[in-house]
User: Fold this.
Amino acid sequence: MTRKSFRLETVVSLGAMVALWVVAALVVNDASTLPSPWQVVRIVWVEAAKGTLWVHLVPTVLRVVAAFSLAMGIGSVLGYALGRVAWLDRWADPWVVVLLNLPALVVIVLCYLWIGLTEVAAITAVSINKMATVTVTVREGARTLDPRLSDMAQIYRMPRSAQFSHVVLPQLAPYLSAAARNGVAIIWKLVLVVEFLGRSNGIGFQIHLYFQLWEIGHVLAYSITFVALMLAVEYLALQPWERSARRWRGQSG
Assistant:
């Protein structure tokens, strides 16, 4: 599939989603239940012009970046260690399984109860929820490292730093990109939940506010604003990175 056709299919697919929304709004014919896309866009414009949208969008983005960085950093290091050290993997595997299956809501509530209704608690809760998934993904990548490439690097007496940069990282790149792509999709949803439950600003806080006021148009406006931002990250950053990570194996993705 060429990049041009990919972009065309993406645009047409997103256009079909909007068209379905338009049809549903016309069928319902009640803006208080399901406003049309242009009515929601008008709300977004008004909120952005007032500055309210940016006051809440920026903290949410910062929380996503912080939680994503922590989850990817700690999870990648832990996953690589578990994939390369068998006895460590055996001891740590029950911990990883528990974290994988622990409900996100439980982690969020416990962090708020133990740490308090703070930024640290919010970011910690989101990071813990995603870290286990990153660990498992990178662990699988570490287990599949080609020993022949490592042997070749040792024969040529490559420094450890060069071995990691030129032998290990290229093989782990598809797993890291997959973990990152999946991580962004999950983390931004969890950030909205922690804001919904215990923060005084952010997109999740605004959704909670307008949920209480039963303002569906504003709920959709704030939701779609952040969805649009995450779509931009997905198509402009994460998917190109994933294609690049797989290219050396002859996989176009």
Summary: The chain has a mean pLDDT of 84. The first helix runs from residue 3 to 28.
